[in-house]
């Protein structure tokens, strides 16, 4: 979720919503403020509260309908909601730590293998959403959080849409564009709503190019060169960024191709420390052209002991 803003609760906001005690403000979503809440058993959640001046209450209802499904570990978990309360709210998984934009800005770009791993997991989550007829419509680096396990998670479904529902919402207003323009598919930004799913694919491709190069889509002259990324990763990313949406692969196909590039099943690491070590060492190794050499068994044991000792001393700094 967004960074902790350190704000106190505003006047008029109930200190308890449902079974959750509100602790502090976290940030703002598409349609409301987000607070850190705590259940009676100590479980912490992110509680989104609808803006009192928001006249589009139906969007909040739709977000609950979207989040109530089970889409795997790459999609933020939904816990509870009360849309009939005087202060409508939604409780969802609380994800402390960095989003992907912050990760790239603070630690540098990801190695190719890690880009492929992130792509595999996010494409898999997106495929689950698309199978359920749900399009996210606002994919961007700040809406990708990193779990403590190092795995990426899609958040903020304030603009998501159930494409199987009757077209009574903003899909009927073809001139109204929702989302964040910099990360939008070109046809979607122009009002073409014929394929929400392939628009999501474009946004995911743009996110992964940024993660691997540090270049924003607004820097079009550099962005589409994909400097520093080799084949076949570049080939897949270019397909996801195709100007013709019909030429973009579906999410499930992207997930399979990323899995092959990632080495099938490798993760970002079993801890934040492991993840950061992999990301930083991978970037340095690729820039220097060095190749990893497997140590002998005795050396491997010594190296493992050294790393355990090092992590035990530095884990609080990660």
In short:
The chain has 10 helices and 10 strands.
**For the CA atoms, what is the radius of gyration?**
21 Å
Span from first to last CA? 18 Å
How many strand segments? 10
The number of domains is 2
Strand content: 5-15%
In one word, what is the shape?
Answer: globular
Mean pLDDT across residues: 79
Number of helices: 10
> According to CATH, what is the topology of the largest domain?
Transferase(Phosphotransferase), domain 1
What is the helix/strand order?
Answer: EEEEHEEHHEEEEHHHHHHH
Structural class based on helices, strands and sheet pairing: alpha+beta
- Largest sheet, order of strands side by side? 1-2-3-4-6-5
Q: Catalogue the unreliable spans.
A: 1-6, 171-176, 264-276, 279-297, 311-318
CATH class of the largest domain: Mainly Alpha
Q: In CATH terms, what is the architecture of the largest domain?
A: Orthogonal Bundle
Task: Give the CATH H-level superfamily of the largest domain.
Answer: Transferase(Phosphotransferase) domain 1
Helix content: 25-40%
Please identify the oligomeric state.
single chain
Specify the biggest β-sheet.
Answer: 6 strands, antiparallel
Entry keywords:
318 residues; Transferase(Phosphotransferase), domain 1; 2 domains; 6-stranded antiparallel sheet; two-stranded antiparallel sheet; 10 strands; globular; disordered N terminus; disordered C terminus; kinase; transferase; Protein_kinase_ATP_BS; ATP-binding; Prot_kinase_dom
Describe this structure in words.
It is a single chain. The protein is of the alpha+beta class and 318 residues long. It has two domains: 77 residues, Phosphorylase Kinase, domain 1, CATH 3.30.200.20; 163 residues, Orthogonal Bundle (Transferase(Phosphotransferase), domain 1), CATH 1.10.510. A hairpin with a 5-residue loop joins strand 3 and strand 4. The N terminus and C terminus are likely disordered. Helix 3 packs antiparallel against helix 8 and helix 5 packs across helix 7. The protein has a six-stranded antiparallel beta sheet with strand order 1-2-3-4-6-5, with helices on one face. It contains ten helices and ten strands. Keywords: ATP-binding, Kinase, Nucleotide-binding, Transferase. This is Protein kinase domain-containing protein. It comes from Glycomyces algeriensis.
